[in-house]
Amino acid sequence: MRVFCGAVGTSLAGNEWNNRTVLHHVRLTEVASVNNPAFNQQIGETQSLLHLTAESSRALFDFTVNSQAAMMGLDDIFYLSAVIFILIIPLIWITRPARGGRGAVDSGAH
């Protein structure tokens, strides 16, 4: 049962990470267009500094945005995990250990 829950949790976290990465990518590239003078200036500076073509400079920009969006998505997942862990802390005081047995010895665990 634990393996199943872990697999489902991993699947849900991976799916949400992908969704958050796409969201952050959209937000980071909202103003990145050929009509934006600041974007064109940055692409031009990257071209001249690294001696790249225009396509290579835009590809480097896209790679950087993809990396940052993935990191921001992962930050969101870790933040959500921290909130969930904080919310389940009271369960420690609500749950009680089983009575009337000696625990693992009586259950036949090895």
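the 2nd protein, sequnce then structure:
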Amino acid sequence: MSENMINVKVFRFDPSVDREPYYKEYEVPLQQGMGAMDILDYIYQNLDSTIAYYDHAGCSLGICARCAGKINGKSGLLCQTIVEGNVTLEPLSGSEVIKDLVVIRGEKGDG
């Protein structure tokens, strides 16, 4: 059984230790129907448990929008976005980063 491997670039930044944000690349086996959140789960469970992101604890139904981010430069919900090939995962532009993909949501009433 041959696995289709994809390259995943993830935004990494811990303001308490990093001077500047950077991207870390991971190689992940892609399965049909796999979403961006599933990819982050795979990375956390198998490759790098230091990665910070909002996991499925929120809702995983696309309702709470805690997992909003940028997938290949486009805004979306990580729990609802199906990945079909190499992907870059980032926090939403203008968000204050707590660590990696965990951010302080906007202060202008957007949640």
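The chain has one domain: 4-104. The domain at 4-104 is CATH 3.10.20.30 (Ubiquitin-like (UB roll)).
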